[in-house]
Write a structure and sequence with these properties.
The chain has helices spanning 38-45, 76-91, 147-166, 181-186, 201-204, 206-219, 242-252, 267-276, 295-303, 314-318, 322-328, 354-357; strands at 9-11, 14-16, 20-22, 52-58, 96-100, 119-120, 129-132, 135-138, 143-144, 171-175, 224-228, 258-262, 281-284, 309-312. By secondary structure, it is of the alpha/beta class. The chain has an eight-stranded parallel barrel with strand order 3-4-5-10-11-12-13-14, surrounded by four helices. Strand 13 (281-284), helix 9 and strand 14 (309-312) form a beta-alpha-beta unit. Mean pLDDT is 92; it is low at 340-360.
């Protein structure tokens, strides 16, 4: 058992009982209208042993939806539907923040009720395909956002964050990675604008910073986290000068509660960001040789100082009581992601309940 993992840590306004974080993982178990369900309350409540749970991405607007049956947080009804989730986690002694994720150009009109055309920094389609009930679908060309629409998207994030607090969340995480809208503005291949939001590194980070500042002003920076994924090409992303890009982004950040970094296999870059950022960092380590993040990998990240807390992904899917298993040294259930993600990409298989996984 790693004692370091079970030391308390404070991230802004969030006082965590341990440094084990549940990473955000899409599960597509909301209703077609984007409402959180009883199954989601059970799922998150059973994993409340984590020092902090970061939910799957929730769209901050109807146009921000990129996947079928993904949860939303842009209507009062959606906020109400999340309350049983936050109550279940708090009743079990946990902390939970919701990830706000605008999919941008990733998605397909046939996958969500609104049937909207995707939006992006520029009218450049992403290589790759969405997966619907009837098979793969090429990502369509998105519509480039106008400057006026960009301001509205910024406001939508702030409005969504306010709804999150009403729903009982302890804070929000803004998704600025993995090839979704904020990351699309950062990347040179998806952002071909010639106005104040495109071209130079300083211009390409502008939108992300405006979103983060607006959310921080609305609910307090000490309740806000930011997720980035430097060097991650997922969803057809080419960043350009990655080091200069994230140096500029981190330098412009307000004093948010935490910076959550998905490691892209370059620990030297993570160490450089750690040296630059004076706040707290949650690290989602890059799995080595296909091995999911485990206690040994997490402890090494804490002891070397590149992280203040560590996010676990698929291990939490297979082990609802992961934190207790690590604490007691109990064996972990198989975390092979193929058991939890549909092999044909049409959706995700059901995650196990505590009883099905077998309590530690």
């Amino acid at each position: 058992m790693s004692e370091k993992l079970f030391e308390p840590v404070t991230l802004g306004k969030l006082a965590l009982s341990n440094r084990v974080v549940m990473a955000p993982m899409s599960r597509n178990r909301a209703t077609a209208e984007g409402l959180a369900t009883d199954l989601m309350a059970t799922y998150y409540g059973q994993r409340a042993g984590a020092g902090l749970i970061i939910t799957e991405g929730a769209q901050p607007s109807a146009v921000g939806q990129g996947f079928g049956n993904s949860p939303g947080l842009h209507t009062q009804e959606q906020a109400e539907s999340w309350k049983p989730v936050t109550e279940a986690v708090h009743a079990a002694g946990g902390k939970i923040v919701v990830q706000l994720m605008h999919a941008g150009r990733i998605g397909h009109p046939s996958l969500y009720p609104s049937g909207h055309q995707s939006v992006a920094p520029s009218a450049v389609a992403a290589a790759g395909q969405a997966y619907g009930p009837e098979g793969p679908l090429d990502y369509p060309e998105p519509r480039a956002l106008t400057v006026e629409e960009i301001a509205e998207v910024v406001k939508e994030h702030a409005d969504s964050a306010e709804l999150a607090i009403e729903a009982g969340f302890d804070g929000v995480e803004i998704h600025a990675g993995n090839g979704f809208l904020l990351h699309q503005f950062l990347a040179e291949n998806s952002n071909q604008r010639t106005d104040q939001y495109g071209g130079s590194v300083e211009n390409r980070v502008r939108f992300a910073i405006e979103v983060i500042e607006a959310v921080s002003e609305r609910i307090g920076a000490d309740r806000v986290g930011v997720r980035i994924s430097p060097s991650n090409p997922y969803n057809d992303i080419v960043e350009g000068d990655t080091h200069a890009l994230y140096e500029a982004l981190v330098a412009a950040l307000p004093p948010v509660a935490f910076l959550h970094i998905l490691e892209g296999g370059n620990r030297d870059h993570i160490a450089a960001l750690r040296a630059q950022w004076t706040g707290t960092i949650i690290l989602c380590p890059h799995p080595e040789n296909g091995v999911p993040v485990n206690a040994e990998i997490a402890t090494e990240a804490l002891e070397t100082g590149v992280a203040c807390a560590v996010a676990f992904g698929s291990a939490f899917l297979a082990n609802p009581d992961l934190t207790e298993r690590i604490r007691t040294g109990a064996a972990l259930a198989d975390a092979d992601q193929s058991k939890f993600y549909g092999g044909d990409h049409t959706g995700y298989t059901d995650y196990p309940t505590l009883a099905e996984a077998g309590a530690a």
